[in-house]
Amino acid sequence: MPSSFETLPYTAQAFLATLFTWAVTAAGAALVFFFGSVRKTLLDAMLGFAAGVMIAASFWSLLSPAIEMASSLSMNAWIVVLFGFLSGGILLFFGDKLFLLFEKKGQYIGQKRSLMLILSITLHNIPEGLAVGVAFGSVGVLGSSLSSAILLALGIGLQNFPEGSAVSIPLLREGYSKKKAFFYGQLSGIVEPISGVLGALLVLFMQKLLPFLLSFAAGAMIYVVVEELIPESQSNERKDLMALFTLIGFSVMMVLDVALG
After folding, report:
1. For residues 126 and 217, is the Cβ–Cβ distance under 8 A?
2. Chain centroid, CA 159 distance in Å
3. Would you say residue 60 has pLDDT above 80?
4. Which residue in 42, 70, 141, 204 has its CB near the most CB atoms, within 10 A?
């Protein structure tokens, strides 16, 4: 690694590392520009793909690390993770109820689905950014390994690629232009540099809070998958094909998460 990077303050290291994770999210969101005239069946398939990505990410990127982290901090892991998971789902549940006030007018249904998709991925990216920040902060505060922090940032960044496309491509289905779909896709990852610096600054406090935040994001993601993404993709007459794309999305994210640790 460049010696100039090693000499930077750990907050600057965390910022640069999470800029990388955001850039990979933006690269994934940019896939939307490679689609020409898109048929509804393909868009529904991409919705199913996004559902699979989010289901896999909710466990391997969020719940499993939350359990491990809570245990290592001598916390009651199952209580922390259960409370966080249900809290995330309940937040989206009440948000869903608020949108019911507008659904009677019809035109807001697609907007609700789009907003919930963007919100759930953004909530997922906040604790991931915090985790990277905590890793770099631990180097400066607790003397942890810098190489481990860099590998964590690299792993999270590469996992963000399918997540960026999981936001931008389904937004095409809702009638967004490619530019807007890309903008909101990359926007879901811009919270990572912000939360990365925050995690580095508040490393000791965030270590205790991270298990809850990770499981909170998982609950929000699962709610959106079950409430919006899968039912909508299954509205296509080719339900079997849509289910296959959900499996593919799950498999891609699972392989990335497991391979990159």
Report:
1. yes
2. 9
3. yes
4. 70
Residues 66, 254, 45: CA angle, nearest 5 degrees: 120
Instruction: Determine contact, residues 49/31, Cβ cutoff 8 Å.
Output: no
Residue 90 pLDDT > 90: yes
The 10 Å CB-count burial string (b at 16+, else e) for 33-67 is eeeeeeeeebbbbbbbbbbbbbbbbbbbbbbbbbb
For residues 152 and 85, what is the distance between their CA atoms, to the nearest angstrom?
A: 23
3-state SS, the chain, equals CCHHHHCCCHHHHHHHHHHHHHHHHHHHHHHHHHCCCCCHHHHHHHHHHHHHHHHHHHHHHHHHHHHHHHHHCCCCHHHHHHHHHHHHHHHHHHHHHHHHHHHCCCCCHHHHHHHHHHHHHHHHHHHHHHHHHHHHHHHHHCCCCHHHHHHHHHHHHHHHHHHHHHHHHHHHHCCCCHHHHHHHHHHCCCHHHHHHHHHHHCHHHHHHHHHHHHHHHHHHHHHHHHHHHHHHHCCCCCHHHHHHHHHHHHHHHHHHHHHHC
Contact between residue 17 and residue 196 where contact means Cβ atoms under 8 Å apart: yes
Average confidence (pLDDT) over 205-234 = 87
Please state the pTM of the whole predicted model.
Answer: 0.76
The span from the CA of 21 to the CA of 191, in Å, is: 10
Tell me the residue length of the chain. Answer: 261
